[in-house]
Amino acid sequence: MIPSFWNRIPPRWRPALFRFGLNLFPAYRATGGRVVAVAPDMLGARVRLPLGWRTCNGAGTTFGGSLYAATDPLFALLLAVNLGPDYVVWDKAASIRYRRPGRATLFADFRISVEDLRVVRETVAREGRCDRHFHVDFCDAEGVVHAGIDKTVYIGRRHPPSGENQPMPR
Question: Which SUPFAM superfamilies does the record match to this protein (predicted)?
Fold first, then answer.
């Protein structure tokens, strides 16, 4: 999931390269969302989703597809860069709950805790796979929640011990 050159990049450059690379990636760029900040420890990121002609629906509010698409890769990518190349990480499921129409620029703050990483590593070591659930809210500048997105991310071992088949995501 993460390119092989990633580990050759100095750690202090990784947050900036992550933000720059994801914002230039055509599929993410098309969402209208922009990663505006990445935590120095690579455990968090902030996404801005402006209301504009590319993110506006017929009612003049933020298009639900833009809300979801702007969140799509973040939890999986943050997990992948923190867990390293011995793990495979995939988005597995998502749901979105709309609370109020977005009529301005919205922000989402993604955060993965050190405890999340510890639990994932322990569960994968014990069971060979793990499903982890995360939640993020899109809020306006005043902190009013406009939508909540729940994500389920699959994490497994990249190379199972010899003679063992890796379970497929369900």
Answer: Thioesterase/thiol ester dehydrase-isomerase
- Give dist(CA 45, CA 80) in Å, integer: 14
Distance between CA atoms of 31 and 158, rounded to whole angstroms?
Answer: 29
pLDDT in the model for residue 102: 92
How far is it, in rounded angstroms, from Cα 65 to Cα 40?
29
Whether the Cβ atoms of residue 50 and residue 5 lie closer than 8 Å to each other: no
| Backbone CA torsion sign across 29, 35, 36, 37 | negative
For the segment 147-169, what is each residue's pLDDT rounded down to a tens digit?
A: 999 999 999 998 765 555 556 66
> How do the domains of the chain map onto residue ranges?
4-157
Strands 106-111 and 87-98: unpaired
Put simply, whether the predicted model's pTM sits higher than 0.85 gets the answer yes
- Cβ–Cβ < 8 Å for 97, 151: no
Token pair for residue 110?
């993604």
Pseudo-torsion of CA 54, 60, 66, 68, nearest 10°?
Answer: 180
Residues 108-153 pLDDT 10s: 999 999 999 999 999 999 999 999 999 999 999 999 999 999 999 9
